[in-house]
Design brief:
The longest helix is centred in the middle third of the chain and has 14 residues. The N terminus is likely disordered. The protein has 358 residues and is α+β, with helices and mostly antiparallel strands. It has a six-stranded antiparallel beta sheet with strand order 1-2-3-4-10-11, covered by helices on one side. The radius of gyration is 22 Å and the shape is globular. The protein is 27% helix and 20% strand. A hairpin with a 5-residue loop joins strand 6 and strand 7.
């Protein structure tokens, strides 16, 4: 049985640990799915789950069964992810679930093969920090413990989730993953929610707040903005690539959206091989109007404007890297100002309903 809503772990070995294998070819354990016990885990953190009582075990089994899990639950044990239990399933990847049964992750945990440099117990997040970037000190500690993972850097985005001690991150390519806040265990699962006894999908509150946080970090001067031409009723952010055919189709609708009171902010998000150089040329134009005109020419006529010889700056990459926290899976990725991602066809009437501008 395929579990409802949840992602299966499949990417983490390729995205994170395969790189490690190249850096450390002699380490067979780096690519294994073996969950190694953490001998130096602090015993002073009262928030961390330490044992599974009979009451909790029975309640979680009942809750998961009611939510549609028909696979045999073989055991429930403390998870290596803080404040979670691991639910082992016959023939399937395990689940990790909070004691209240609200937040669930499906995925095999990978042990970080890096040397653990920072051993202190991390300060756990609060509900007020949901969807916020992790503190500078927390990020520094995480990265210090991830030295063997070569695609991790100071540019890697990390955000606090609803589960204290579980951090959401993404590669600069926008591929999401979760990790314990000490950086010791990683999974490519994402946090789903059980509400009223049923799986309802990813944690939408976290996703929206995280995306709002990303918008706040963007350099607004390097967005190409198409202001509403009637009283503004909605603001959207669009991750665009000049060679994406669907991006071009959406761009044809921008004047009509502007007329309905929608302001469109374009984030340069190159994904095609030729796009970085071509988009650099557009973003190198001297004024906001000339940038907009060059972008229009690319999107509507397929004509690219080269960068002036005097332009030696890449104005696209900084926002592209900050937008990694949006975890864009395909362009155009369309977000309301409140951080909610639109997940249907922009050519459908539902799009205007989503924007509230029917």
């Amino acid at each position: 049985m395929t579990l409802p809503v949840l992602k299966s772990a499949s990417l983490i070995s390729v995205i994170l640990l395969a790189t490690t294998a190249c850096a450390q070819p002699s380490s067979a354990d780096a690519n294994s799915n073996n969950v190694v016990s953490q001998s130096n885990q602090s015993t002073q953190n009262s928030q961390t789950v330490k044992e599974v009582s009979t009451t909790v075990d029975e309640r979680l089994r009942q809750l998961l069964t009611q939510a549609g899990i028909k696979t045999q639950i073989t055991s429930i044990v403390p998870s290596k992810l803080p404040n979670m239990y691991q639910v082992n399933l016959a023939g399937q990847l395990p689940l990790h679930i909070t004691e209240d049964g609200r937040y669930v992750i499906q995925g095999e945990l990978q042990k970080n093969p890096s040397e653990r440099v920072v051993t202190k117990t991390p300060v756990r997040s609060t509900s007020a920090q949901l969807g916020k970037p992790v503190s500078a000190s927390t990020k520094s500690d995480i990265l210090a413990n991830m030295s063997a993972l070569k695609n991790m850097s100071a540019k890697t985005p990390f955000f606090y989730t609803a589960v204290p001690g579980v951090i959401w991150g993404a590669t600069l390519e926008g591929v999401p993953f979760l990790l314990s806040d000490d950086g010791q265990y990683i999974t490519d699962g994402e946090i789903s929610v059980i509400e009223n006894g049923q799986f309802v999908g990813l944690d939408e509150e976290f996703e929206a707040l995280k995306n709002q946080s990303v918008f706040e970090t963007l350099d607004k001067s390097q967005l190409i903005t198409y202001p509403a031409t009637s009283p503004e009723r909605a603001v959207i952010y669009v991750a665009d690539d000049v060679n994406c055919p669907y991006c071009r189709r959406l761009h044809q609708q921008v004047p009509a959206l502007n007329a309905k009171g929608v302001t469109v902010n374009v984030i340069g998000y190159p994904i095609y091989e030729a796009s970085p150089k071509q988009m650099r040329g557009i973003w190198c134009q001297a004024t906001e109007d000339s940038r907009r005109q060059a972008f229009d020419k690319a999107m509507l006529q397929g004509e690219m404007t080269p960068a002036p010889a005097s332009c030696n700056t890449d104005h696209v990459t900084p926002n592209r890297e900050k937008a990694a926290g949006l975890a864009v899976m395909a362009t155009p990725a369309i977000y309301r100002e409140d951080g909610v991602l639109y997940q249907a066809s922009f050519e459908s009437p539902e799009f205007l309903e989503f924007l509230g501008v029917e």
